[in-house]
Amino acid sequence: MIDRYSLSPMKELWTLNAQYQRWFEVELAVIEAYEEVGIAPRGTARTIRRKVRINVPAILEIEKGTHHDVVAFVKHVVTQLGSEGRFFHFGLTSSDVVDTALSMALRRSCRLILEQLEELLQVLWNLALRYRNTITVGRTHGVHAEPTSFGLKVLGWYAMMMRNRDRLERALEDVSFGKISGAVGNYAHVDPKVERIALEKLSLRPIPVSTQIVPRDVHAAFVQTLALLGSSVETLAVEIRHLQRTEVLEVEEAFKEGQRGSSAMPHKRNPILSERLCGLSRLLRSYALVALENVPLWHERDISHSSAERFIFPDATGVAYYILVTLKHLVEELKVNKETMRQNLDITGGLIYSQRVLNTLIGSGMDRETAYKIVQELSKRAWESGENFYHLVTSDPRITSVIDSEELAELFNPEYYLRNIDRIYNRFKEVGGCEE
Amino acid sequence: MIDRYSLSPMKELWTLNAQYQRWFEVELAVIEAYEEVGIAPRGTARTIRRKVRINVPAILEIEKGTHHDVVAFVKHVVTQLGSEGRFFHFGLTSSDVVDTALSMALRRSCRLILEQLEELLQVLWNLALRYRNTITVGRTHGVHAEPTSFGLKVLGWYAMMMRNRDRLERALEDVSFGKISGAVGNYAHVDPKVERIALEKLSLRPIPVSTQIVPRDVHAAFVQTLALLGSSVETLAVEIRHLQRTEVLEVEEAFKEGQRGSSAMPHKRNPILSERLCGLSRLLRSYALVALENVPLWHERDISHSSAERFIFPDATGVAYYILVTLKHLVEELKVNKETMRQNLDITGGLIYSQRVLNTLIGSGMDRETAYKIVQELSKRAWESGENFYHLVTSDPRITSVIDSEELAELFNPEYYLRNIDRIYNRFKEVGGCEE
Amino acid sequence: MIDRYSLSPMKELWTLNAQYQRWFEVELAVIEAYEEVGIAPRGTARTIRRKVRINVPAILEIEKGTHHDVVAFVKHVVTQLGSEGRFFHFGLTSSDVVDTALSMALRRSCRLILEQLEELLQVLWNLALRYRNTITVGRTHGVHAEPTSFGLKVLGWYAMMMRNRDRLERALEDVSFGKISGAVGNYAHVDPKVERIALEKLSLRPIPVSTQIVPRDVHAAFVQTLALLGSSVETLAVEIRHLQRTEVLEVEEAFKEGQRGSSAMPHKRNPILSERLCGLSRLLRSYALVALENVPLWHERDISHSSAERFIFPDATGVAYYILVTLKHLVEELKVNKETMRQNLDITGGLIYSQRVLNTLIGSGMDRETAYKIVQELSKRAWESGENFYHLVTSDPRITSVIDSEELAELFNPEYYLRNIDRIYNRFKEVGGCEE
Amino acid sequence: MIDRYSLSPMKELWTLNAQYQRWFEVELAVIEAYEEVGIAPRGTARTIRRKVRINVPAILEIEKGTHHDVVAFVKHVVTQLGSEGRFFHFGLTSSDVVDTALSMALRRSCRLILEQLEELLQVLWNLALRYRNTITVGRTHGVHAEPTSFGLKVLGWYAMMMRNRDRLERALEDVSFGKISGAVGNYAHVDPKVERIALEKLSLRPIPVSTQIVPRDVHAAFVQTLALLGSSVETLAVEIRHLQRTEVLEVEEAFKEGQRGSSAMPHKRNPILSERLCGLSRLLRSYALVALENVPLWHERDISHSSAERFIFPDATGVAYYILVTLKHLVEELKVNKETMRQNLDITGGLIYSQRVLNTLIGSGMDRETAYKIVQELSKRAWESGENFYHLVTSDPRITSVIDSEELAELFNPEYYLRNIDRIYNRFKEVGGCEE
Questions:
Q1: Range from A409-418, A422-431, B357-366, D186-195 carrying the lowest mean pLDDT
Q2: Distance from CA of B72 to the nearest CA of C (A)
Q3: In this structure, which of A294, B191, D385, D428 has its CB flanked by the most CB atoms within 10 Å?
Q4: How many domains does chain A have?
């Protein structure tokens, strides 16, 4: 993870010091289990905790000789101990410690991400409520389609993020597995009871079958969830970038006092946060690939996943955290230009109401093909000549003969398109936080 | 999907004919809803169903003019109808039909995949039971580590596939959403009640907020699940390829009467199914990427996802189905060479028991560093000189002075490593199907 | 490759029939080499060519028994032969035939793609020339930046596609390698001279070191080139989609007589080709991944790449071909709205000229920071109040005191920004096809 | 890039300090060009270089206010200058500086990688020469195929790395483009001559058409090259992992004095470097994806690529550099067990010579189908019963009636398979460094 996008407390989670502390916690939990089952004398873990100081540079120094990080860690600890040192790492394989500690880190990272997601959900909900009845044009293919509500657009983001919350909550469950089952996962040197007790102390569950490690499909599922979260964040970011383009300008990212959009063009105000979110979401997609390639390891494990994971776990969780924090601030401070939305609504001269005209013609008994042709013909004329579509419609006898002028006028009323909005909002009533 | 790997009934699911049939079902469900809410006369849907014959080439012919597949489909149907044609596609936008029908197809494909996964689970479980107590060497880094049970290895596959079943069952829930909400998702022309009734008839639920389409995070989650399933299948396939290599030869894929392993080398028996599964799992990973890139569409939808989905949905579901069927057969007919497993166990001359020696030395009161050095020294000698490790251990006074010869002999008993196997199996008791 | 996007002659290249024909050509080339070196009697190849009819269903029928496609193919041929059949496939391993034939197919596909790329280059060049002096606004971050020429934008596409042509021409060289070197690449049964002669007849070169197959880095490089071509096509497609959005509308894809943009909204004209190109480019990216994963095969080859290649080679070349053909038509028929470009240029009220004001202030001796602050302040006011930037600039004494009014007016002349355009175009003079 | 795998001098290339120094060099090159064309007084660049000290923390402090890194950098420099400050960054847009400096960094990184690749090529060549005539079994599908030479295997790696060198040399050319062409690439404020002079001083060429930036297909091509390099490295690493597995043990990574293979199993010697290389190659593949997604930017540039590039450029070049250095050491110190190779050659009891028997039967006039069936039948018996294939062949009258016993014995001579090896090596004679 690069400094520029590292945020506390996620940042601290992935330091070497934090890692060694987690390893130490796992080792102690096992010793406490040993105490319970009568292998180690009562108080051993407590004594060890009291005597030991984890010193990162000292461990790295030892590793230069051992070429094995856990061996170096154990050496570092044991040299600070007396006879109780015999119980430290006793019966364990490195991966019992490393992989269980990794689950602790991933679970914690997942919780931090969930916390930010909750905050994001709240600001999205607030935004959706505030603009529930703000009319804006809905666009498909980048082309004006029909009127809709800006709040509904935001509510769609909210709903998407709710799904991501569900996925992350499952992921949290799914990464909460540890293993203290030995070199090939068969409890050759440690009783399953020791695993159960130790993991319980760490609030983890034993993975039903391990090899030397927790199988990597578990981790891949988590990274996939982050990738999908990223692509969802990108959905919002792309929308904001579109809405901030000069010709549209319906929303703007906050522009800070003193901020400069360009070293050359003093007038520039760019949606740089949204653009950044798009770039970072690409990274999240790529990490998912690596995590998937890490799944099919050889036999009872090969260690090829390890080097890759040293990059992708800090980066994937760090980036996911960063984009949620950034998006939350962006949404909170988003400037929404209701007037511009209303002006943009009208630039097609009424073409966006063409389906209502079509449906009303059909509803009046005209067959679908005839109706479609009439409306398409007028649309085409309006499009190509710049004539106002409403005028064309209200002057065409094929239409005026079946729809009276009052009804026709009503067909061009944008409010009509919002009449079912509340029923969509009501689907989220139970969510809470909803005050109008 | 290419013919070579297309299997029924998955294959039929993705034909154009099946697609149009699904579209027709969606249109009819909406008309039935119209009947219920009083928009269309009772019996309209029944009449339409009776009158209409879906003709694929005829639709394709119309599409050449319209450049729009749904418009062509609707034209094709309406020309077969009388006045009831007014209600066909009335108030709908193309995506109401296309996307809802897509959910029907994805759900069905997911069920087909789940069925095969169930069958695979059963054969894995049987295999795991049959070889529960078959001793084999556990390998880490490709290097002999410690004895374990071949059944346990299989049980690990079983457990991994159980997790995939859970993921697919969630995915099944997650893709069971349709939408009949109009051009920009705000029910401008169709009442939410119509959507509710129509989708209920199709056993789908309304997605809480739609745009013109069902948001693509939903579909991406499904394709991700297939990608992870693929990487899990690859895990098994890689293991089988390893175990079938000439020097190991602990298992073999069935070799059919008349089959030829090579056009040049008449002796060859290759794990070609497992190799094929590895190649196909790469495809599944790649589809997940496409599905993720399809998420951040513009505004209320752009159609860029559509062309890509024409490839990845049939291919991803088709490949997932194919690999499960293939793996099931492979596992069912797998030849397991217990004697070779036992022979391979001994090729290190007892080195695989080094940790037991180490632990027993520590258990006897020796400090960890000293014990490790003694055992590593003897291991090194055995490794480099080819001397038998057991002989070295039983001749070293540093060891024999603290462990008596009977206990030493017991340390080299592979059965010891299986003593906790049953407790792992017991974790799956509730699964059922477990009969020995 | 799916029918919908399959175009001739690329489509025919990947039929089973074409594949068997290529296999047959490779076998015959080897026999001709055998004739030259005296292993087979003169005329053997000619006789075989005369006697044999390749029958696809017959081969597939045999394969059901052999479970090996080349063995089936050889059987099919040999049964049509007399004693000369002894020389057919003599000394060869399947991959000698399959991989050499694959190179023939890839080379041919690469040439087909290059042909389309040449045509695309021509239409891009024509477009770039036609709009060389058409003023439009340049946009960065989606926000108006400075005036530029629409032709220059197109010239950038042209230059990018020139780079892709260079890459494809290298790729063409790189895939033009065959191998007739036996089961493990050491010419155990065939003399290197036979390989040289046979490949020369097929216009291929021997790969310097083969295993059983041509190493897969060669193929991966080709697929990577297609992926980059795809992302380049996407660059153009994204731009067109942006320029066709309702608020911008500076270009439009051709809209055919009878075409329907939407089943519901008769007014819609959507950039559907460009959207399709974006979707398809995602596929090309994903194939590159698969091709990369296919590189690290086991030992002298494993066959895991084969199943994946059955998908990705037809699909990657087929999609690449399709997108070039589609883009060429799109560009040829693109409607360019010069007037709209000019109108859009002015919607910021002159803000796009801010850098010229800034530079002129600095040029007049003002220090950079002071100048930036003045211009940013006026820009901000213009932006927020809607006041015209030109009026603000020409009314500010800090500016008017150092720049006279005539010079100020000239600073807001868009023509100024095009004065170096010709010098960029001139860089491509040598390219040819350039007629004004 | 994480510390653990960061190596000098690649590591220093990507520090913030080095980046600012490059920016400074670009700015000075432009000012020198200004001096040449008469815009700035002679000596301006020299004065600025003398006066300015780049201070990273000071720049970061300013950036907190500007939210724009180049603006902060320029401020930092200008405050150290007098009136000559007017010429600093004059007429430039941020990307002129940033993107040109980026090309400097990428070119430098590419050269560093090429240097390591050259060294790797040398050690591979040496290894290939040393074991040119060392007989080992060639394996396909993981199954023994035919005898070959270990040196030839290495020569295949060498040839693959030669191709990667070619690709990197092209890539070096391809990233050596800068741009000083202003906000939208049309030289609005800077004459093309200034660009030409400035870039020449930096040993870069002007990209023929730029937007605000150098188009990202250029960068993607470079990252793709690194990804393919990674997959090639993985090819070697996978092979070494296979050859070091306990049952094969034909090669071993060096095991250092004091090194520990496992915290639990004192006997373990694992191919951990090769495993690490496999993991890291996955990362390289994933970066290529991000680079491809960075290509289709909006209009004259959007900045979404920037955040992603802050990760992938240091990581991709850093990892590529690391894996080459690591692989070079690994190969240099690789322990090759010729005796084990010879022993493994025989474990199939002669089956690996089956094709020679087949070909000799066909050569003697027997038809292919009959010959194949005889040899396959004997192979099958040998395989299933464990009987020696040579004995079976020499006892079968169908064979002995057409091949005499001396010739038969010769068919089982592994040396035969090496008789064309030298002709393969000779293809590389011109490479140099080849001395035996």
A1: A422-431
A2: 9
A3: A294
A4: 2
For this structure, is D219 an active site residue?
Answer: no
Exactly one of C262, C304, C364, C395 is catalytic; which is it?
A: C262
Indicate whether A95 pLDDT > 80: yes
Is A11 a domain residue? no
- Which residue range forms the structural domain that includes residue B113? 93-342
Distance separating alpha carbons of residues D337 and D250, to the nearest angstrom:
5
- Indicate whether C238 and C136 sit together in one domain: yes
Question: Which residues, in sequence order, are CB contacts of A15 under 8 Å at separation 6+?
Answer: none
Structure tokens at D161: 């790395």
Residue D425, in any domain of the structure: no
| pLDDT at residue A434 is higher than 70 | no
Partners of B214 on chain A (C-beta within 8 Å) are none
Per-residue pLDDT, C436: 36
Confidence of residue D436 (pLDDT cuts 50, 70, 90): very low
Last residue of a domain, one of D342, D371, D398: D342
Check: CB of residue A251 under 8 Å from CB of residue A337.
Answer: yes
* C184 touching A (Cβ < 8 Å): no
* pLDDT at res. D434: 41
Tell me whether residue D395 is one of the annotated catalytic residues: no
pLDDT in tens, D312-327: 999 999 999 999 999 9
Identify whether residues A162 and A193 lie together within a single domain.
Answer: yes
Q: What is the pLDDT of residue B266?
A: 66
Q: Rounded to whole angstroms, how far apart are CA atoms B188 and A416?
A: 7
What's the pLDDT at C266?
Answer: 66
- Put simply, the answer to whether B289 touches A285 (Cβ < 8 Å) is yes
- Candidates B8, B83, B141, B307; catalytic one: B141
List the catalytic residue out of C8, C67, C83, C141: C141
Same domain, yes or no: B217 and B121 = yes
Q: C265 to chain B nearest CA, in Å?
A: 8
| Residue A51 counted as domain residue | no
- 3-state class (DSSP) for residue B140: strand
Look at residue B370 and tell me if it is in a domain. Answer: yes
Q: Which of residues 389-428 of D touch B (CB under 8 A)?
A: 389
How far apart CA D363 and CA D407 sit, in angstroms, is 13
CA distances from B417 to B155, B276, B422, D147, D269 (A): 16, 34, 11, 39, 21
A53-68: pLDDT as tens digits: 999 999 999 999 888 8
Peptide bond into A9 cis (omega under 30): yes
Residues 257-276 of C with CB under 8 A from B: 258-265, 270, 272, 275-276
Interchain CB distance below 8 Å, B163 and A217: yes
Q: Within this chain, do residues B206 and B286 fall inside the same structural domain, yes or no?
A: yes
What does the pLDDT read at residue C15? Answer: 96
Yes or no, beta carbons of C153 and D300 under 8 Å apart: yes
Beta carbons within 8 Å of D93's beta carbon, 6+ residues apart: A262, A263, A264, A265, C355, D182, D183, D212
Average pLDDT, chain A: 94
In this complex, which of C300, C359, C369 lies closest to D138 when CB atoms are compared? C300
pLDDT in tens, D379-394: 989 888 889 999 999 9
Q: Considering only residues 69 to 98 of chain A, which have any Cβ-Cβ distance to chain D shorter than 8 Å?
A: 70-71, 74, 89, 92-94
Give the distance from residue C258's alpha carbon to the nearest chain D alpha carbon, in angstroms: 31
Catalytic residue among A68, A203, A262, A364: A262
pLDDT tens for each residue of A96-112: 999 999 999 999 999 99
Q: Is the pLDDT of residue C77 over 70?
A: yes
Within D333-404, residue ranges assigned H as helices are: 338-345, 354-363, 368-385, 389-394, 397-400
Q: Do A145 and C265 touch (CB under 8 A)?
A: yes
What's B133's domain CATH number? 1.20.200.10
Q: Kindly report, residue by residue over C393-435, the tens digit of the pLDDT.
A: 999 999 999 999 999 999 999 999 999 999 999 999 754 444 4
Assembly ipTM = 0.95
State how far the Cα of B214 lies from the Cα of B220, in Å rounded to an integer: 11
Q: Do C159 and D75 touch (CB under 8 A)?
A: no
